[in-house]
Amino acid sequence: MTCFERALEYTQIEQEPKNGKLVDNWPTDPKIKFENVCLSYGLKGKQVLKNLNFRIESKEKAAIVGRTGAGKSSIIVALFRMYDIEGNIFINSINTKTLPLEKLRENLTIIPQDPILFTGSMRSNLDPYGKYTDVEIWHAVKEVNLDRHISDLHYIVNDCGAHLSVGQRQLICIARALLDRHKIIILDEATSNMDEEMEALIHSTIDKHFKECTIISISHRIRQVLNYDKLLVMEEGELVECGKPKELLKNTQGVFYKMAQKANLV
Length: 266
Ligand SMILES: Nc1ncnc2c1ncn2[C@@H]1O[C@H](COP(=O)(O)OP(=O)(O)OP(=O)(O)O)[C@@H](O)[C@H]1O
Ligand SMILES: [Mg+2]
What we know:
Elements: H1 2-11, E1 32-40, E2 47-56, E3 61-66, H2 72-79, E4 86-91, E5 94-95, H3 101-106, E6 108-111, E7 120-121, H4 122-126, H5 134-143, E8 156-157, H6 166-180, E9 184-188, H7 196-209, E10 214-218, H8 222-225, E11 230-235, E12 238-243, H9 245-250, H10 255-262
Parallel strand pairs: 3-10, 3-11, 6-9, 9-10
Antiparallel strand pairs: 1-2, 1-4, 4-5, 7-8, 11-12
Helix pairs in contact: 5-6
Bound molecules: adenosine-5'-triphosphate and magnesium ion.
Protein backbone atom coordinates (compact mmCIF):
# COMPACT_ATOMS: atom_id res chain seq x y z
CA MET A 1 0.00 0.00 0.00
CA THR A 2 2.96 2.31 0.60
CA CYS A 3 3.89 1.86 -3.06
CA PHE A 4 0.36 2.78 -4.10
CA GLU A 5 0.44 5.79 -1.86
CA ARG A 6 3.74 6.92 -3.35
CA ALA A 7 2.57 6.36 -6.93
CA LEU A 8 -0.58 8.38 -6.19
CA GLU A 9 1.51 11.16 -4.71
CA TYR A 10 3.63 11.27 -7.88
CA THR A 11 0.53 11.80 -10.03
CA GLN A 12 -0.14 14.96 -8.07
CA ILE A 13 3.28 16.55 -8.45
CA GLU A 14 3.14 19.85 -10.25
CA GLN A 15 4.17 19.24 -13.86
CA GLU A 16 6.67 21.34 -15.77
CA PRO A 17 4.99 23.44 -18.46
CA LYS A 18 5.03 21.78 -21.88
CA ASN A 19 3.96 24.77 -23.95
CA GLY A 20 6.16 27.24 -25.76
CA LYS A 21 6.85 28.58 -29.19
CA LEU A 22 8.82 26.37 -31.57
CA VAL A 23 11.53 28.05 -33.61
CA ASP A 24 12.80 26.39 -36.78
CA ASN A 25 16.48 25.48 -36.94
CA TRP A 26 17.20 26.88 -33.52
CA PRO A 27 19.98 27.50 -32.54
CA THR A 28 21.94 28.24 -35.71
CA ASP A 29 24.18 30.75 -33.98
CA PRO A 30 24.85 29.34 -30.50
CA LYS A 31 25.54 32.55 -28.57
CA ILE A 32 24.30 32.91 -25.01
CA LYS A 33 23.29 36.03 -23.13
CA PHE A 34 22.36 36.31 -19.45
CA GLU A 35 20.41 39.46 -18.58
CA ASN A 36 19.85 40.34 -14.90
CA VAL A 37 19.56 36.66 -13.98
CA CYS A 38 18.74 35.85 -10.35
CA LEU A 39 18.04 32.38 -8.99
CA SER A 40 16.94 31.08 -5.63
CA TYR A 41 16.08 27.48 -4.85
CA GLY A 42 12.65 27.27 -3.27
CA LEU A 43 10.46 30.18 -2.28
CA LYS A 44 12.32 31.27 0.83
CA GLY A 45 15.79 30.21 -0.28
CA LYS A 46 18.54 32.78 -0.45
CA GLN A 47 19.61 34.05 -3.83
CA VAL A 48 22.37 31.85 -5.20
CA LEU A 49 22.73 33.80 -8.46
CA LYS A 50 22.70 37.55 -8.05
CA ASN A 51 21.91 39.71 -11.05
CA LEU A 52 24.17 38.02 -13.59
CA ASN A 53 24.91 39.79 -16.85
CA PHE A 54 27.28 38.29 -19.40
CA ARG A 55 27.56 37.07 -22.95
CA ILE A 56 29.21 34.02 -24.44
CA GLU A 57 29.69 34.38 -28.16
CA SER A 58 29.13 31.71 -30.75
CA LYS A 59 31.86 29.03 -30.75
CA GLU A 60 33.53 30.65 -27.78
CA LYS A 61 35.10 28.41 -25.13
CA ALA A 62 34.13 29.84 -21.77
CA ALA A 63 35.07 28.57 -18.34
CA ILE A 64 33.33 29.26 -15.06
CA VAL A 65 35.60 29.28 -12.03
CA GLY A 66 35.04 29.98 -8.37
CA ARG A 67 35.02 28.35 -4.98
CA THR A 68 32.72 25.56 -3.94
CA GLY A 69 29.19 26.88 -3.50
CA ALA A 70 29.90 30.01 -5.57
CA GLY A 71 27.00 29.24 -7.92
CA LYS A 72 28.79 27.68 -10.89
CA SER A 73 26.47 24.70 -11.31
CA SER A 74 23.50 26.96 -10.60
CA ILE A 75 24.29 28.88 -13.82
CA ILE A 76 23.78 25.58 -15.64
CA VAL A 77 20.60 24.91 -13.66
CA ALA A 78 19.31 28.30 -14.87
CA LEU A 79 20.31 27.53 -18.45
CA PHE A 80 18.33 24.28 -18.40
CA ARG A 81 15.36 26.02 -16.68
CA MET A 82 15.37 23.49 -13.84
CA TYR A 83 14.08 26.29 -11.59
CA ASP A 84 12.30 29.52 -12.41
CA ILE A 85 14.64 32.45 -12.72
CA GLU A 86 14.28 36.18 -12.56
CA GLY A 87 15.71 37.97 -15.57
CA ASN A 88 16.23 36.49 -19.00
CA ILE A 89 18.53 34.10 -20.80
CA PHE A 90 18.83 34.33 -24.57
CA ILE A 91 20.28 31.63 -26.80
CA ASN A 92 20.68 32.66 -30.42
CA SER A 93 18.64 35.80 -29.51
CA ILE A 94 15.62 33.72 -28.44
CA ASN A 95 14.46 34.09 -24.85
CA THR A 96 14.68 30.56 -23.44
CA LYS A 97 11.51 31.21 -21.39
CA THR A 98 9.50 31.25 -24.62
CA LEU A 99 10.75 27.86 -25.86
CA PRO A 100 9.15 24.52 -25.07
CA LEU A 101 11.27 22.96 -22.30
CA GLU A 102 11.88 19.81 -24.28
CA LYS A 103 13.18 21.74 -27.28
CA LEU A 104 15.47 23.81 -25.08
CA ARG A 105 16.92 20.85 -23.20
CA GLU A 106 17.37 18.58 -26.18
CA ASN A 107 19.62 21.19 -27.74
CA LEU A 108 21.98 21.45 -24.80
CA THR A 109 24.46 18.70 -24.08
CA ILE A 110 25.73 18.39 -20.55
CA ILE A 111 28.45 16.26 -19.06
CA PRO A 112 27.47 16.62 -15.42
CA GLN A 113 29.47 16.59 -12.22
CA ASP A 114 28.02 13.21 -11.25
CA PRO A 115 26.40 11.53 -14.23
CA ILE A 116 23.76 8.87 -13.72
CA LEU A 117 23.25 6.16 -16.31
CA PHE A 118 20.15 4.09 -16.96
CA THR A 119 20.04 0.43 -16.14
CA GLY A 120 20.14 -1.38 -19.48
CA SER A 121 22.61 -1.87 -22.29
CA MET A 122 25.46 0.43 -23.20
CA ARG A 123 23.71 1.00 -26.50
CA SER A 124 20.49 2.23 -24.86
CA ASN A 125 22.54 4.57 -22.71
CA LEU A 126 24.45 6.05 -25.63
CA ASP A 127 21.52 6.25 -28.01
CA PRO A 128 18.28 6.24 -25.99
CA TYR A 129 16.14 7.23 -29.00
CA GLY A 130 17.63 4.67 -31.40
CA LYS A 131 18.82 7.33 -33.85
CA TYR A 132 22.28 5.98 -34.71
CA THR A 133 23.79 2.86 -36.22
CA ASP A 134 25.99 0.47 -34.23
CA VAL A 135 28.98 1.56 -36.32
CA GLU A 136 28.44 5.23 -35.45
CA ILE A 137 28.02 4.44 -31.76
CA TRP A 138 31.09 2.22 -31.61
CA HIS A 139 33.08 4.96 -33.32
CA ALA A 140 32.11 7.39 -30.54
CA VAL A 141 33.01 4.77 -27.92
CA LYS A 142 36.47 4.40 -29.45
CA GLU A 143 37.01 8.16 -29.69
CA VAL A 144 36.85 8.42 -25.89
CA ASN A 145 38.87 5.21 -25.34
CA LEU A 146 35.94 3.45 -23.69
CA ASP A 147 36.61 0.39 -25.82
CA ARG A 148 39.29 -0.43 -23.23
CA HIS A 149 36.57 -1.02 -20.65
CA ILE A 150 33.62 -2.38 -22.56
CA SER A 151 33.64 -5.26 -25.00
CA ASP A 152 30.62 -4.35 -27.14
CA LEU A 153 27.39 -2.33 -27.16
CA HIS A 154 25.48 -5.12 -25.40
CA TYR A 155 27.56 -4.44 -22.30
CA ILE A 156 25.10 -4.37 -19.39
CA VAL A 157 24.86 -1.30 -17.19
CA ASN A 158 23.56 -2.40 -13.77
CA ASP A 159 22.20 -0.33 -10.96
CA CYS A 160 22.23 2.97 -12.89
CA GLY A 161 25.95 2.61 -13.59
CA ALA A 162 27.00 2.27 -9.95
CA HIS A 163 29.67 -0.28 -10.93
CA LEU A 164 31.37 2.24 -13.21
CA SER A 165 33.63 4.99 -11.93
CA VAL A 166 32.50 8.62 -12.18
CA GLY A 167 35.22 9.19 -14.79
CA GLN A 168 33.95 6.28 -16.89
CA ARG A 169 30.37 7.52 -16.63
CA GLN A 170 31.51 10.94 -17.77
CA LEU A 171 33.26 9.36 -20.75
CA ILE A 172 29.95 7.76 -21.70
CA CYS A 173 28.31 11.21 -21.58
CA ILE A 174 31.09 12.60 -23.79
CA ALA A 175 30.56 9.75 -26.27
CA ARG A 176 26.84 10.61 -26.28
CA ALA A 177 27.73 14.26 -26.94
CA LEU A 178 29.91 13.16 -29.86
CA LEU A 179 26.92 11.38 -31.35
CA ASP A 180 24.37 14.14 -30.81
CA ARG A 181 26.52 16.98 -32.16
CA HIS A 182 24.56 19.73 -30.47
CA LYS A 183 25.89 23.25 -30.74
CA ILE A 184 26.17 23.96 -27.03
CA ILE A 185 28.22 21.71 -24.78
CA ILE A 186 28.40 22.10 -21.04
CA LEU A 187 31.03 20.37 -18.94
CA ASP A 188 30.59 20.46 -15.18
CA GLU A 189 33.93 19.37 -13.70
CA ALA A 190 33.93 16.81 -16.46
CA THR A 191 37.54 15.80 -16.10
CA SER A 192 38.10 16.25 -12.38
CA ASN A 193 37.73 12.52 -11.72
CA MET A 194 40.13 11.41 -14.40
CA ASP A 195 43.86 10.84 -14.35
CA GLU A 196 46.07 13.27 -16.27
CA GLU A 197 46.41 11.06 -19.31
CA MET A 198 42.65 10.66 -19.64
CA GLU A 199 42.11 14.36 -19.04
CA ALA A 200 44.51 15.25 -21.86
CA LEU A 201 42.73 12.79 -24.13
CA ILE A 202 39.34 14.31 -23.35
CA HIS A 203 40.59 17.82 -23.99
CA SER A 204 42.09 16.87 -27.33
CA THR A 205 38.84 15.04 -28.23
CA ILE A 206 36.84 18.15 -27.34
CA ASP A 207 39.20 20.41 -29.31
CA LYS A 208 38.98 18.12 -32.31
CA HIS A 209 35.25 17.40 -32.42
CA PHE A 210 33.57 20.38 -30.82
CA LYS A 211 35.28 23.19 -32.77
CA GLU A 212 31.96 24.47 -34.07
CA CYS A 213 30.32 24.42 -30.64
CA THR A 214 29.97 26.92 -27.87
CA ILE A 215 31.50 25.35 -24.79
CA ILE A 216 30.88 26.22 -21.17
CA SER A 217 33.18 24.41 -18.84
CA ILE A 218 33.24 24.46 -15.06
CA SER A 219 36.63 23.67 -13.68
CA HIS A 220 38.51 23.72 -10.45
CA ARG A 221 41.84 23.33 -12.21
CA ILE A 222 43.12 26.79 -12.96
CA ARG A 223 45.91 25.53 -15.22
CA GLN A 224 43.30 24.00 -17.50
CA VAL A 225 41.27 27.19 -18.03
CA LEU A 226 44.19 29.41 -19.04
CA ASN A 227 43.73 28.64 -22.73
CA TYR A 228 39.99 29.37 -22.78
CA ASP A 229 38.58 32.36 -24.67
CA LYS A 230 36.67 33.73 -21.72
CA LEU A 231 36.57 33.27 -17.97
CA LEU A 232 33.64 33.94 -15.69
CA VAL A 233 34.79 34.25 -12.11
CA MET A 234 32.02 33.63 -9.57
CA GLU A 235 32.01 34.54 -5.90
CA GLU A 236 28.99 33.98 -3.65
CA GLY A 237 26.53 34.08 -6.53
CA GLU A 238 27.99 37.18 -8.14
CA LEU A 239 30.00 37.48 -11.32
CA VAL A 240 33.05 39.31 -10.01
CA GLU A 241 35.31 39.13 -13.07
CA CYS A 242 34.79 38.34 -16.72
CA GLY A 243 37.28 38.43 -19.57
CA LYS A 244 40.18 36.76 -21.32
CA PRO A 245 42.46 34.84 -18.92
CA LYS A 246 45.51 36.90 -19.90
CA GLU A 247 43.70 40.16 -19.20
CA LEU A 248 42.38 38.97 -15.86
CA LEU A 249 45.91 37.97 -14.87
CA LYS A 250 47.09 41.56 -15.44
CA ASN A 251 45.03 42.68 -12.48
CA THR A 252 47.27 41.60 -9.63
CA GLN A 253 44.59 42.59 -7.08
CA GLY A 254 41.94 40.51 -8.87
CA VAL A 255 40.21 37.35 -7.69
CA PHE A 256 41.44 35.27 -10.63
CA TYR A 257 45.02 36.44 -10.14
CA LYS A 258 44.83 35.25 -6.54
CA MET A 259 43.46 31.87 -7.66
CA ALA A 260 46.31 31.51 -10.14
CA GLN A 261 48.77 32.53 -7.46
CA LYS A 262 47.46 29.81 -5.15
CA ALA A 263 47.88 27.27 -7.94
CA ASN A 264 51.51 28.47 -8.39
CA LEU A 265 50.85 29.62 -11.95
CA VAL A 266 52.02 33.22 -11.58
N1 LIG B 1 18.98 21.95 -5.28
C1 LIG B 1 19.36 22.88 -4.41
N2 LIG B 1 18.52 23.31 -3.44
C2 LIG B 1 18.89 24.26 -2.57
N3 LIG B 1 20.08 24.87 -2.56
C3 LIG B 1 20.98 24.50 -3.50
C4 LIG B 1 20.66 23.49 -4.47
N4 LIG B 1 21.74 23.33 -5.28
C5 LIG B 1 22.67 24.21 -4.84
N5 LIG B 1 22.22 24.91 -3.78
C6 LIG B 1 22.96 25.99 -3.07
O1 LIG B 1 23.29 26.98 -4.01
C7 LIG B 1 24.59 27.51 -3.76
C8 LIG B 1 25.41 27.41 -5.04
O2 LIG B 1 25.58 26.02 -5.33
P1 LIG B 1 26.22 25.48 -6.68
O3 LIG B 1 25.94 24.03 -6.74
O4 LIG B 1 25.77 26.32 -7.81
O5 LIG B 1 27.76 25.75 -6.39
P2 LIG B 1 29.05 25.37 -7.25
O6 LIG B 1 29.79 26.65 -7.50
O7 LIG B 1 28.68 24.54 -8.42
O8 LIG B 1 29.89 24.51 -6.20
P3 LIG B 1 30.83 23.20 -6.44
O9 LIG B 1 32.15 23.74 -6.89
O10 LIG B 1 30.92 22.60 -5.08
O11 LIG B 1 30.17 22.31 -7.43
C9 LIG B 1 25.14 26.74 -2.59
O12 LIG B 1 25.00 27.55 -1.45
C10 LIG B 1 24.28 25.50 -2.51
O13 LIG B 1 24.14 25.09 -1.19
MG1 LIG C 1 28.96 22.49 -8.95
